[in-house]
Design goal:
The structure is a homotetramer of 422-residue chains. The first copy, chain A, is α/β, with parallel strands linked by helices. Chain A contains 14 helices and 18 strands.
Chain lengths: 422, 422, 422, 422
């Protein structure tokens, strides 16, 4: 085995996970490709679980970052003012918020997804004076106690070691049928239901870890309408589905809703560097100075690359490109499901956030393992890892997208032909 | 006012704080100095609240980082294996753990201080099957719900919007007198005390945010002894006091104790980049794969600079240098307290983590404001901001350290002379 | 106004409630009748909210009680042994448990409904090592924090002043439709639902305070089946529906289910004296001695009357009598609903636990007020007090039952005719 | 063995406790004496754990009770008005509250100690809008989740099966030394202590279950003063120490303090019947009607006996009698401690609530067992059952008090002489 794998196995905690599925040592990465220490090349259909929507080490961002470092630009600034930060704020406003008629205030809650979710929950409770948050089945929001309380996965929840409180789980769209909101509303309007009017609902428009479940726009619109009617804040956790992954910068744009609070992280920095923001409607921005803080909320390297990444959104060409390629992806997956009925598959998702859920136990893990052998990296999702999940870089060239899809098709075919051997 | 300040005031959430104390825009930084957009130079006695113990943009680390970026080294790897990670693990073992006869497993819990604290609390509860954590008055551990539950500051706690649970606060060393552990032990041994044997105690050896309170070594040794006797895990939160800040790599070395779990972040990456580790005694490393995870737990830029930073610890010369300079600092502060009895000051802390607590309300804020005018950056600490806190880079040249101390002396003198004008 | 009413208004807390609906002073009561200080006679269709199923001051029980008192029988015995207690235990076993093939252990958890519910929840958590309890919309279980946590009413819940925890509310039968258990099961079987397998479910077979909602036997059987399948304990709270109120001693007999734990109180003593028991399957009886206790768990006066009350259940004649009269009641209510379509009424309940829910806001309160004027006492129920609720003594003579029903019919008629005046 | 003991062992839950220490079957009781089914007579120095301060079956109360029952007086009235209730309220005001210049409103929260404690905690949280309650080491307040959360005993707490929340335990008087309030105040005034200003403190002036710990009056006065200064409500739980047990009707009278809320139960009814009240300063009586309720809050039998019992307090003769006899008791216990240094005893308590704490493990249990043999009933208390506790009826004749004390002296002597045989 590799000496480096040895080192990791010897020194790193057993909590490590992806190294178990992708047992090799990566050294280099560019755009939608990665290379390991043996020089083997991989197509990356994983993209850092959505943190690398623009691929690896994008040249434009790289240049900006190296120039900044070479000029001894300030690296770590807490929430003091820096030029890098001001530039990011201005451009984020000009390129993203203003054209979409959104006037959010930008909070830097610490650089990770769970930081932004925790800040959103705290603010919602502070604004409303209520304690409960409604979250949804299949939701994934993070690993710290506040975020974990609104996360559905039972293995992760048990990791808390304490009862997780002040949250109520409701059924996501299509959980049982199309009527999940009938239940939700009944609980809210009935004064004897045991469910209090919550501070907020926290929703992913497409659930990633939960198994690539895409809510219908109609469902999202109804959620917004219910929130408005009852004075409940609507938090969209766009950590995974945002930054173009579903085809638009924010995942909720196509549904036509305007959340009260939005959580962004993962691909926000563009380069895979830690960065997160919490977007807050101005009238809700009632924090005391420093009431929520964090050491790495001023990660200027990430400001620099994030600012560069916004160039992708200056006009609608990128959206169109994503849309076009996502159709290819979707159609190919549909074909796989049709061609191989043995896998009892269902295509899920929207945009560049798609996958196949298979009712055959263990199949998805086998597909991803087979793909890895063939030089394609892809992960599983869902409570029983029943989904294999395609997360290519949004700017992957069409030919390499097709090449990747062929590897998947071949892997499925291989497994279907010779189930015993696998 | 600066256009960039305008931008920030307009777009960033009111939660921003340090910009209020240091109302200028920083552009460049090197070693122990910073420059704003007007070209004004500052001595940095703040060091990113302890995240920049080696100063800004250290040339050695910078070179390693730029080389890595230029070679398209993998930037974001979740917890897949990368050469950058393996190198960090090996060197951390060789340079830090092995010489200190520590055999911790290294967990990457996400890149911030609150991530490592949350992982430590979760693991302690999982290992022991108990729910309570004992924390201490004046403790600061983070802003997410788990970490906030063990943090003392009432303004921050109220920010949670929910009751914070599963924790018991005990009196830190010297809280009332030297007998705080008599109370603690009585609570533990009395079956009618209402305090259950906890999963863990979480302790800072020197409390930073809490007001630069340094626990006596004897107190820390007794804490360890109590933990051993009752089967309680000892978590040292070394996020702020670690990485040399008190004079040794770990702040607990001089006390001769061996915690069960150690939390490190802030200066770990050396360059101000987000990185954190949770160090775990091997027999406690019982996580399930992926039971705690996080998108940015594989921040390879930070691995590269962190590895380079470890060169500071290859022999004991750095420790000696810190020790020598810390004596200068401590003696100067003692002299200030003696020279200006009007400030009713008390020198606190140890190593490069020192300050003066003043009983004169508002004085510390005035001192830091005056210093800022004079080109020195320094923050306040303590529940009532009653302490001004000196956190220079550990590798600051002696002459600039003295220069900074002179600015402080001048500022105090100025305020004492003309209290009305200030 | 009455001097006694004055005294009460002056000295008793504003929390008092029924005195507001029945503003007179009661002095005497016998069987199904009450008299106030003015000598006015009332038919009692309220029966102490189900605590007086055998009517007031039953002569047989009264004689036993007075004899016991006159002989200086021990009154208060905590859980020391007394002859009165032993006699109750033996007779309860012989007359109630054995014929029904139930072998429960009997716990005396304190003399009120909330005591038995709290003991049941504690035991379920202790036995399973789990923390959550599933309760149901519309459920009412008591006012102490544990019981209140499983109670649905939002006004009562807010009275807690703290978030109520460790419980999950699911939809009771017919809450939205007949499929409520499809949702419940989906939540249990989905590892990503955010709902953990609970320690227990606590269910009323007919919800009294919740608005006289009678679950279908099929629903109850499915609940039992789900509990068995997942190793969840089934607690039936029979405090209000038990002791004959639905036609059988236990309310769950007709559904053919065997709960793991049963809560009884209210009419258990027969005479309106405080008494409660928690019935526990022998294999679950793992309490430590004194782990749950209470000063009034040995209320011997209540043992004496409870023992006497069991004579009602020596053969099946009482059940038959209840059944016959309940048909009269049910049919009359159906006729009222049909005769007065203006009240938009729906008949609810089963046995001697019935009522009419009216969609006309405020109507039920007006009906009960009008009845009170006419000498009939009856209360409202449901989250919006939309139900008027008939709870006559089970042994009320047929002619007085009919007389009471006529008063109700008259009251409704009166209100329908002249809605303005009312 | 007795047939009745057999019945109980066979049918009652293993949670039963006192029957284990007093393994006989009681049939009859009068004043300060009890008889078992074998006709053996016992002196009762236990008094129903404080529920029988006037002894068993007091003739005056008995006559009133039987007359009431014979006249078919209303037995169970919820919180409807009854003459029995009005008479109790008026007399309680005239005999108890008015002469002591107390103007509390009287709430009937359900008939047991835990009911009144739960209502007090709820009201304190409602009034202040805060969630935390400060309770004290050694405190005992009840077995339902709210009351259990403020109870110290770890075995009882573990019986909850869930973490007990929203409470902070502080050191009772003399817990470590006389300075426990220095700690308490420091925690309150320090904004970084992690302890929020609570809704209330709940205190017993003498802790019964906790081991007969009597707080100094000075300590109680300081507690009151701290509560006033910080706007914290002061709840005195007088369930066990009240109704004359310490020599005055309320246990706090001698300390000269005026609590905001007082909890009474146990001996309130005088006859051992379940009854409790929560006394509330008028300005705090902000309940909504029915916001806290309970089936047995109108236990008229108890109103009748409680009213009769108040005759004991019409003048100060009863207080004087208690005082005189308590001196005999206290002096005898002091003599026992002096005469038998082997028991390493300490006399504790005040009034008729006294005991000896012995450092010899298991000794107190042996003393009570030996006394039981000799015809005296007495229980142990304290977290390790290290105290034997004398709770005679307050109206015990001097000669029988002395006789009981002689039995105790003899038992101790016997054990000291022949420790092996015991």
């Amino acid at each position: 085995m590799s000496k480096n794998i040895d080192i990791i196995n010897q020194h790193e905690s057993v909590v490590r996970s992806y190294i178990r599925n992708f047992p090799t040592v990566f050294t280099k990465a560019k755009k939608h490709k990665m290379w390991d220490e043996n020089g083997k090349e991989y197509l990356d259909f994983f993209s850092g679980a959505g943190a690398l929507n623009y691929g690896h080490n994008d040249d434009h961002m790289k240049k900006k970052l190296v120039d900044y470092i070479m000029s001894d630009g300030i690296t770590h600034s807490l929430d003091m003012a820096s030029t890098a930060k001001a530039e990011f704020l201005q451009k984020f406003h000009d390129v993203i918020l203003k054209p979409r008629e959104l006037d959010y205030k930008v909070m830097f809650p610490g650089p990770t997804g769970t930081n932004t979710v925790e800040s959103a929950l705290k603010l919602a409770r502070k604004v409303t004076g209520r304690t409960d948050i409604i979250s949804f089945t299949g939701g994934f929001h993070g690993m710290t106690i506040g975020s974990l309380s609104v996360t559905g996965n039972s293995m992760k929840r048990q990791g808390a070691g304490i009862p997780l409180q002040n949250t109520v789980t409701m059924a996501y769209d299509n959980y049982v049928d199309h009527d999940t909101l009938v239940y939700l509303e009944r609980f809210l309007e009935d004064k004897g239901s045991g469910v209090a009017i919550p501070a907020a609902m926290i929703v992913e428009t497409v659930q990633g870890e939960g198994g690539i479940n895409a809510a219908r726009f109609e469902w999202l619109q109804q959620i917004e309408e219910i929130c408005r009617r009852w004075g409940i804040l609507l938090i969209i956790d766009d950590v995974q589905a945002g930054i173009g992954r579903t085809g638009t910068f924010f995942s909720f744009e196509a549904a036509g809703i305007k959340p009260d609070i939005v959580c962004l992280s993962k691909s926000l920095s563009g380069y895979g560097l830690p960065l997160a923001v919490t977007l807050i409607k101005p009238e809700l921005d009632i924090w005391k100075p420093g009431e929520h803080n964090g050491t790495f909320r001023g990660n200027n390297h990430a400001f620099v690359t994030a600012t560069a990444a916004l160039d992708y959104w200056k006009d609608d060409s990128f959206e169109k490109e994503i849309h076009e390629k996502s159709e290819i992806m979707y159609n190919t997956l549909q074909k796989i499901v049709t061609d191989y009925p043995e896998i009892k598959g269902e295509v899920r998702g929207r945009g560049f956030m798609v996958g196949i859920a298979s009712e055959v136990e263990g199949l998805s893990a086998k597909v991803t393992a087979k793909c890895f052998e063939s030089g394609l990296i892809m992960e599983t999702a869902g409570p029983n890892d029943e989904v294999f999940k395609l997360f290519p870089a949004l700017n992957i060239p069409k030919e390499d997208l097709i090449k990747g899809l062929e590897i998947i098709d071949e892997s499925v075919k291989h497994l279907v032909k010779d189930p015993v051997a696998n």
